[in-house]
Amino acid sequence: MKISTRGQYGVRAMIVLAQHEAEGPMSIKxxxxxxxLSHSYLEQLLAPLRRAGLVRSVRGPVxxxxxxxxxxxxxxxxxxxxLEGPLAPVECVEEPSQGLCDYESACPxxxxxxxxxxxxxxxxxxxxxxxxxxxxxxxxx
Amino acid sequence: MKISTRGQYGVRAMIVLAQHEAEGPMSIKxxxxxxxLSHSYLEQLLAPLRRAGLVRSVRGPVxxxxxxxxxxxxxxxxxxxxLEGPLAPVECVEEPSQGLCDYESACPxxxxxxxxxxxxxxxxxxxxxxxxxxxxxxxxx
DNA sequence: GATAAAACCGAGTGTATTTGTCGGGTTTAG
DNA sequence: CTAAACCCGACAAATACACTCGGTTTTATC
Lengths: 141, 141
Prior knowledge:
Helix content of chain A is about 50%, strand content about 5%. Chain A is built from six helices and two strands. Chain A has helices at about 5-20, 30-35, 40-50, 75-85, 110-125, 130-135; strands spanning about 55-60, 65. In chain A, helix 1 (about 5-20) packs across helix 3. The model of chain A has no long low-confidence stretch (mean pLDDT about 95). Chain B binds a DNA duplex through helix 3.
């Protein structure tokens, strides 16, 4: 039941972008330094986020990344789905619907997994980047 | 964000034990057959469940396992904590308290992880084996 | 136009975890 | 005494994770 570093770092990077939204594009180098992350690895996370339309990139010198929408329009769920895949604790309750367990059609355990899934989704979909930037005292740096 | 097969199989095995509670100890062989699991692997899951006091074993011929408490007293959370470890999406929000992130003391992302943790725990701690046995049509077999 | 900073891309790599298997030992009912 | 069951530790294949590396393309600035 762990979120991998992809999801963790991705959320942290997006928070940084939200915090410095007004300052124009921010380079991978700067984001990585602010969060103590590897440049190359962070690069691998921003690529899918860009393809998913959550951030936009500007190439060339003084380029970098900025949010593709306002902070209140981007949720933690959006980020985690891109970097972690389906937010379901087991395959058989992924959406769009995976098949039932092959062993028996009425699987009592399945209801548990579905409830966990719904519960997690409700949490992450209800938290926007704006919420996170506001709740934290504005971080300097 | 996945639950490993340990947790999945463990919950399924415990449901089987709850369903046949009245019939005396059930052997690993029978449980494994009912759920289509490997005998050896299931054996590895029942050992920690026994040490944690969730099941009791009876040795010798016609031995096997049975629940150590009534189905309404054993929750899915109890089972998952034994087989999956702490029910926290990232280390820094595990209980008893792990240290904060080493990078900055005020980590906005941390509040997200804590909410996910609480949400998952509330779900799994509120579902007992009794709930699962009742909700499913009584499975024959 | 040259330079350099930055995004972009794909492949590769070492480690850790997962998901089991296997073999042997111990307990115990019949 | 023996078979059935639990008990224990080693081991192995497969997968996922967490990066690293080298090179290409784009583009502001000198």
